[in-house]
């Protein structure tokens, strides 16, 4: 180090402690929450979309779907809770691509902040939004006839699992946003996992009613096992098998896409 | 500029730096240095590699080969330490549109790891300094272009960095706003901040910088003060402005033999100009030739070369011409 640099106190940087890193996460989270609150139309759409699916399957299509042993409203609504968190995550991809294009990521990366804080703060803010949207959809679900039949603890566990799945998926969307870089493309690309995971799952109809070639995928993919576990937690009945698989999926998705997103962020260029 | 000789330490040092983007060499064996307290301008057209160099020095991009250091800290090894002593303001005005000016500054201060009380008071001071007090609590999306640049500049200075990088700070601004920003930058750097500034504008480099490095296609093509660069042209510029555009080509061919290089045409201004070794003799010769041929003139004169002339001579093309800036590969 040169003598001159030493004259500047800033040249011996404050070591990055956990406390400072958490403060960085807090600052970024606050920034993103402010952005969410100042674009209420985006928040509105992310609530409107699952609302439409809910009303569509409860009132328009639901009458034609009979599932033995369970009211269709109790069958379909947990899946729509999950969908509400999936659709919220799409805005993560959009927001990151926007930040990349606007040069915000350059600014943040040139600051002495913790590098992981940028993405942690992004996903934390998006999680808050998903939870808010989920609260609205739960209220709507109950209003159209959905009932929790299990103990309060199990039902809360089901909600927690939905939120956990939604958070893990946020990191998938983060990776998409950072990889495609362009906001429009990010939005389109983010619809894809949502469509595949939600429609080719047990969310709307039982997997057994699907064509044979689709069943192995539909039965074992993360959304199905999560929805089945959540349904069991809400309705009662055997839950262990689906629950551990769902938790394993969430943990696996989280770890894999966290690593991928951090790597993409480290090398990010618009 | 220091008048007495003094021992200076390079705050920015770049040695044989090369950065490739696929087939193109964005930076090709670039070497330069800036002393503490110096304002160094990187001058060049789009695609010259200016932004790429700034991105390497601000730890956003790793070089392929060569060395780059800021305050003696190597960009590849001490990126974290560098980030706490630099400020970066970019041509893309990286401020958050949905946040207010104050929120942007406070966020930057927080992420510089300043104490809350410190960044809050600095944000307030910065808003006053940048004439943004009234707009401070409005979302940035309501700001004009000039206001955004001022805010961006303020955000880059919130940590009081000893080294500041300004990537095309006035690109796209109208002349009056540019002048205001120049004034502001001159004041801000008067306290000894080392500045590396990139620009496509000759007058900007001349106005703000004590030394200029001319970059073209990833290579350093010249280096020195504005005057030294002008001297490299070795003389004056003869300029002819014709009354009728139709005469422009004819005028150029009439004077072609007089200059030290072929005349350059500027049809938009009905102008042709070329470097000449001497002065009065060439002027008289040109006047006589044009008069004999009956070319109507609006203006005929000799002037000191501008940096535009220098750039043209050094690189064979004007500053505006260019390809994509590969530092931000699209």
Order of helix and strand elements from N to C terminus of chain B:
EEEHEEHEHHHEHEHEEHEHEEHEH
Major interchain interface with per-chain residue totals:
A-B, 36 and 43 residues
Tell me the overall shape of chain B.
elongated
Q: State mean pLDDT of chain A (0 to 100 scale).
A: 88
Description:
The complex is a heterodimer of chains A (270) and B (330). Chain A is mostly helical and 270 residues long. Chain A has one domain. Chain A is built from eleven helices and no strands. Chain A has helices at residues 3-7, 18-37, 40-60, 72-101, 104-109, 115-143, 152-180, 183-199, 215-220, 222-235, 240-266. In chain A, helix 2 crosses helix 6 (115-143), helix 4 (72-101) runs antiparallel to helix 8 and helix 4 (72-101) crosses helix 10. Chain A is elongated. Chain A starts with a helix and ends with a helix. Chain B has 330 residues and is an alpha/beta fold. Among the domains of chain B are: 10-85 and 161-230, Rossmann fold; 235-304, 2-Layer Sandwich (Alpha-Beta Plaits), CATH 3.30.70. Helices cover 33% and strands 26% of the residues of chain B. Chain B has eleven helices and 14 strands. Chain B has helices spanning 50-57, 79-83, 101-111, 116-129, 145-157, 175-189, 202-208, 226-231, 248-255, 280-292, 307-315, and strands spanning 10-21, 24-35, 39-43, 65-70, 73-74, 86-89, 163-167, 194-199, 211-216, 219-224, 236-242, 264-266, 271-276, 297-303. Chain B has a six-stranded mixed beta sheet with strand order 6-7-8-3-9-10, with helices on both faces. A four-stranded antiparallel beta sheet of chain B has the order 2-1-4-5. In chain B, strand 4 (65-70) and strand 5 (73-74) form a beta hairpin. In chain B, helix 3 (101-111) crosses helix 4 and helix 3 (101-111) runs parallel beside helix 5 (145-157). The radius of gyration of chain B is 23 Å and the shape is elongated. Chain A binds chain B through residues 1-5, 8, 10-14, 16, 20, 23-24, 27-28, 30-31, 34-35, 38-39, 102-104, 106-113, 269-270, and chain B through 9-11, 36, 55, 58-61, 71-73, 80-81, 83-86, 88, 90, 92-99, 103, 107-108, 110-113, 139, 155, 159-162, 328-329.
């Amino acid at each position: 180090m040169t003598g001159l640099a030493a004259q500047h106190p800033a040249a011996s940087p404050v070591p990055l402690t956990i406390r400072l890193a958490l403060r960085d996460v807090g600052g970024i989270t606050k920034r993103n929450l402010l952005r969410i609150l100042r674009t209420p139309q985006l928040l509105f759409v992310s609530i409107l979309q699952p609302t439409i699916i809910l009303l569509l399957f409860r009132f328009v299509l639901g009458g034609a779907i009979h599932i033995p042993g369970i009211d269709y409203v109790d069958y379909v609504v947990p899946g729509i809770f999950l969908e509400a968190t999936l659709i919220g995550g799409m805005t993560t991809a959009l927001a990151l691509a926007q930040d990349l294009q606007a040069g915000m990521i350059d600014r943040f990366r040139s600051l002495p902040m913790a590098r992981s804080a940028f993405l942690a703060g992004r996903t934390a803010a998006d999680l808050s939004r998903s939870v808010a949207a989920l609260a609205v959809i739960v209220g709507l679900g109950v209003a159209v006839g959905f009932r929790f039949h299990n103990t309060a603890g199990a039902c809360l566990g089901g909600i927690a699992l939905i939120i956990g799945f939604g958070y893990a998926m946020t990191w998938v969307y983060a990776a998409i946003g950072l990889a495609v870089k362009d906001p429009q493309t990010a939005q389109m690309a983010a619809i894809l996992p949502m469509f595949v995971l939600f429609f080719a799952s047990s969310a709307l109809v039982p997997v057994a009613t699907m064509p044979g070639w689709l069943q192995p995928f539909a039965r074992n993919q993360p959304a199905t096992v999560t929805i089945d576990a959540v349904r069991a937690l809400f309705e009662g009945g055997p839950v262990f098998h689906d629950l551990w698989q769902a938790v394993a999926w969430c943990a696996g998705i989280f770890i894999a896409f966290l690593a991928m997103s951090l790597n993409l962020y480290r090398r990010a260029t618009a | 500029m220091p008048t007495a000789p003094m021992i200076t330490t390079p705050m920015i040092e770049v040695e044989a730096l090369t950065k490739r983007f696929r087939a193109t060499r964005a930076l090709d064996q670039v070497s330069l240095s800036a002393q503490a307290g110096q304002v160094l301008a990187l001058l060049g057209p789009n695609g010259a590699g200016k932004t790429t160099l700034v991105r390497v020095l601000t730890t956003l991009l790793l070089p392929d080969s060569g060395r780059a250091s800021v305050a003696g800290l190597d960009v590849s090894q001490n990126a974290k330490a560098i980030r706490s002593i630099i400020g970066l303001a970019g041509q893309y005005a990286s401020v958050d549109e949905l946040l207010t000016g104050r929120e942007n500054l406070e966020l930057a201060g927080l992420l510089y790891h300043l104490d809350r009380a410190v960044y809050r008071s600095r944000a307030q001071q910065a808003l006053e300094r940048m004439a943004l007090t009234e707009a401070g609590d409005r979302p940035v999306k309501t700001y004009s272009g000039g206001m955004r640049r001022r805010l961006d500049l303020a955000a880059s200075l919130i940590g009081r960095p000893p080294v500041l990088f300004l990537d095309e700070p006035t690109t796209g601004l109208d002349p009056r706003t540019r002048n205001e920003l120049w004034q502001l930058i001159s004041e801000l750097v008067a306290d000894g901040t080392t500045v590396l500034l990139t620009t496509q504008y000759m007058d900007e480099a001349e106005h703000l910088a004590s030394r200029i490095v001319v970059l073209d296609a990833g290579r350093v093509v010249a280096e020195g003060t504005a005057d030294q660069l002008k001297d490299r042209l070795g003389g004056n510029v003869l300029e002819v402005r014709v009354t009728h555009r139709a005469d422009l080509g004819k005028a150029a061919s009439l004077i072609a033999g007089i200059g030290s290089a072929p005349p350059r045409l500027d049809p938009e201004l009905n102008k042709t100009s070329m470097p000449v070794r001497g002065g009065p003799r060439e002027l008289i010769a040109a006047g006589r030739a044009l008069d004999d041929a009956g070319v109507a003139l609006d203006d005929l004169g000799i002037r000191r070369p501008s940096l535009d002339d220098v750039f043209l001579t050094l690189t064979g093309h004007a500053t505006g011409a260019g390809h994509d800036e590969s530092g931000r590969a699209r």
